[in-house]
UniProtKB/TrEMBL annotation:
Record: residues binding Fe cation: H311, E317, H347
Organism superkingdom: Eukaryota
Signal sequence residues: none
Pathway(s) per entry: Amino-acid degradation; L-phenylalanine degradation; acetoacetate and fumarate from L-phenylalanine: step 4/6
Family as reported in the entry's similarity comment: Belongs to the homogentisate dioxygenase family.
UniProt domain Homogentisate 1,2-dioxygenase C-terminal: residue ranges: 256-410
The name this protein goes by in its record: Homogentisate 1,2-dioxygenase
Catalytic residues identified in the record: H268 (proton acceptor)
Length: 422
């Protein structure tokens, strides 16, 4: 500490720490940042419940707030703007989630549709880390560590407790957000892939310090705490950090930098090979939340059904589409839309995709999947769904129909028929 204070220029009066691991967390996992501020964050009026609140935000997933359903769910994209004058805070709505922000175990999946910059206010999410996936419209995000311009095709992680404000340089905007309670995102281990591949640490970009110091009467700090919103006023901007150092910081990542691996001979690889970031549970290899992408790539497997296999398993899969078409759905899954296939709920390619795949003469030729970017938030914890998501006019109530036409292509081998007739 002594050294840091010596290095602090004389006009900087306040040093504040932001940490998100216990002091004694092992060094490799310890997260903390020192912020050199013009005025400390503590200088504000008391917190009050925010009025109006945002009733479509959930932080505790139980029977009083949400519904359990094993049904395959799909939503068409929401129109933006939903209402005139929605900023990122009011445009955010929870779709599903599991666990509890207060008990620090679980996650929430939100979407947003916003058309107004956050003006004279910032958001501090005391509940968890946000991983934001813009789908339409860039986000210009001012944080206590500096500013980041995030375009569709990029993602941004805002760590728990860091104040930030979202401006919308392109106007009406929408996208997806996953929020994790009690864990942080990290790069997946690469196992036998080796030292290179998938997302590379050098491509994760954090901002440099940026500050404003004008008097700002009535500035509002909105605090998300236990899934509920509180607000407090102060007479200065929280973006008054003139320098910082540490590893508890926001970062963005351009998904086109991802180096995908895939099968080069036969069989369909599991989607875990496309994990960009993972938030672990304390069970080895079991994710609280994996962020997985399905990027453009070559498909070269031989004698293999190349689209995703039909399956059900212990993980629950929320999917979104940033642009293009997803390889397993010929129609109905649109950019800005979403789907949810929960634990042990069967799903897979729709009838059109299946029929088109098996009738393609050159099925063994290399083919390139281009102009597409889908993603999945995958979790071991079983999600409960918000009532407004189930009742939404965007919900595709006929989703199940996309598989109803799948017919048997099995014809018993001649010998088996003969045996039966004997
Ligand atoms: O269900 C999905 O579309 C996602 C998915 C893709 C894939 O290639 C393999 C498994 C899987 O769950
Ligand atoms: Fe799946």
């Amino acid at each position: 500490m002594a050294m840091e204070e010596e290095q602090t220029p004389p006009e900087l009066r306040y040093l504040s720490g932001l940490g998100n691991t216990s002091f004694t967390t092992p060094r490799a996992r310890n997260l903390r940042t020192w912020l050199y501020r013009i005025k400390p964050s503590v200088t504000h009026e008391p917190f009050y419940p925010r009025n109006p609140t945002n009733e479509r935000l959930v932080g505790e997933f139980d029977r009083t707030t949400t519904v359990a359903t094993p049904t395959q769910l799909r939503w068409r994209p929401a129109d933006v703007p939903l209402h005139p004058g929605l900023d990122f805070i009011d445009g955010l709505y929870t779709v599903c989630g599991a666990g509890s922000s207060c008990l620090r175990h679980g996650y929430a999946i939100h979407m947003y549709a916003a058309n107004k910059p956050m003006d004279g206010c910032s958001l501090c999410n005391a509940d968890g880390d946000f991983l934001i996936v813009p789908q339409q419209g860039r986000l210009f995000i001012t944080t206590e560590c500096g500013r980041l311009l995030v375009s569709p095709g990029e993602i941004v992680v805002i760590p728990q407790g860091l104040r930030f404000a979202v401006d919308l340089p392109d106007g009406p905007s929408r996208g997806y957000v996953s929020e994790i309670f009690g864990a942080h995102f990290q790069l997946p281990d690469l196992g036998p892939i080796g030292a290179n591949g998938l997302a590379s640490p050098r491509d994760f970009l954090s901002p440099t310090a940026w500050f404003e110091q004008e008097h700002h009467p009535g500035y509002t700090i909105v605090h998300k705490y236990g899934g509920e919103l509180f607000s407090a006023t102060q007479d200065f901007s929280p973006f008054n950090v003139v320098a910082w150092h540490g590893n508890y910081v926001p970062y963005k990542y351009d998904l086109s930098k991802f180096c995908p691996f895939n099968t080069v001979l036969l069989d369909h690889g599991d989607p875990s090979v496309n994990t960009v970031l993972t938030a672990p549970t304390d069970k080895p290899g079991v994710a609280l939340l994996d962020f997985v992408i399905f990027p453009p790539r070559w498909l070269v497997a031989e004698n293999t059904f190349r689209p995703p296999y039909y399956h059900r398993n212990c993980m629950s899969e929320f999917m979104g589409l940033i642009y293009g078409m997803y390889e397993a759905k010929a129609d109905g899954f649109l950019p800005g839309g979403a789907s949810l296939h929960s634990c042990m709920t069967p799903h897979g390619p729709d009838t059109k995709t299946y029929e088109a795949t098996i009738s393609r003469a050159a099925a063994n030729e290399p083919s390139r999947l281009s102009g597409t970017l889908a993603f999945m938030f995958e979790s071991w914890l079983i999600p409960r769904v918000c009532p407004w998501a189930l009742d939404s006019p965007c919900r595709d109530l006929d989703y199940y129909q996309c598989w109803i036409g799948l017919k048997s292509h099995f014809s018993p081998p001649a010998a088996a028929v003969d045996d039966e007739n004997e």
